[in-house]
């Protein structure tokens, strides 16, 4: 009968060295830390280098469908491209509002209040296609901050 090897046997018998089989070794994992570092550096670079300017000119999109608003029932404010970043604001009768922004707010509010008192039901902001989105938003904010119950519409050009 063959003798079994007892691993807990403390006898001084000399044993043959145990050999480990050379099985398939699992490849070491690749260190992706440098790749992650480069990715974050590129991300930071593009965030810092990109130009985030809310006064950039945006084209007015064409209307697919929407609500028809009558200009005769609205206090109309025209927003036209001016020199530099500032827009020129005009009334329906083509008279200009003042250029100073603080005085312009008062003048626009007075104009809208007069139009509402004359029976107008909403405010329509008509902007040229090359007026910055920030300027149209500024006019909308002027009206919205001073008139809570008045609907404000921004006109969209149809082609």
DSSP strand tally: 4
> How large is the radius of gyration?
37 Å
Shape: rod-shaped
Structural class: alpha/beta
Give the ordered list of helices and strands: HEEHEHE
Helix fraction? Answer: 25-40%
Beta content? 5-15%
According to CATH, what is the class of the domain at 71-154?
Alpha Beta
N-to-C CA distance = 101 Å
Number of helices: 3
Give an overview in words.
It is a single chain. The chain has a domain at 71-154: 2-Layer Sandwich (Nucleotidyltransferase, domain 5). With 159 residues, it is of the alpha/beta class. 16% of the residues are buried. 30% of the residues lie in helices and 14% in strands. It has three helices and four strands. The model has no long low-confidence stretch (mean pLDDT 78).
Write the layout of secondary structure elements.
Elements lengths: L32 H17 L24 E8 L5 E4 L10 H17 L4 E6 L5 H14 L4 E4 L5
Parallel strand pairs: 1-3, 3-4
Antiparallel strand pairs: 1-2
GO biological process, one term: protein transport
Organism: Roseimaritima ulvae
Keywords: Cell membrane, Membrane, Protein transport, Transmembrane, Transmembrane helix, Transport
């Amino acid at each position: 009968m063959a003798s079994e090897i007892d691993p807990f046997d403390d006898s001084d018998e000399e044993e043959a060295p145990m050999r480990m089989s050379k099985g398939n070794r699992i490849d070491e994992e690749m260190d992706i830390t440098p790749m992650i570092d480069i990715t974050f550096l590129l991300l930071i670079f593009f965030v810092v280098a990109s130009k985030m300017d809310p006064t950039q000119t945006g084209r007015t999109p064409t209307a697919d469908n929407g609500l028809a608003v009558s200009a005769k029932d609205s206090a109309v404010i025209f927003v036209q491209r001016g020199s530099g970043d500032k827009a020129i604001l005009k009334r329906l009768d083509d008279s200009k509002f003042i250029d100073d922004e603080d005085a312009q707010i008062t003048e626009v509010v007075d104009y809208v209040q007069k139009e509402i008192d004359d029976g107008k039901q909403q405010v329509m902001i008509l902007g040229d296609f090359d007026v910055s989105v920030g300027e149209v938003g500024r006019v909308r904010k002027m009206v919205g901050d001073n008139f809570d119950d008045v609907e404000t519409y921004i006109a969209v050009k149809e082609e």
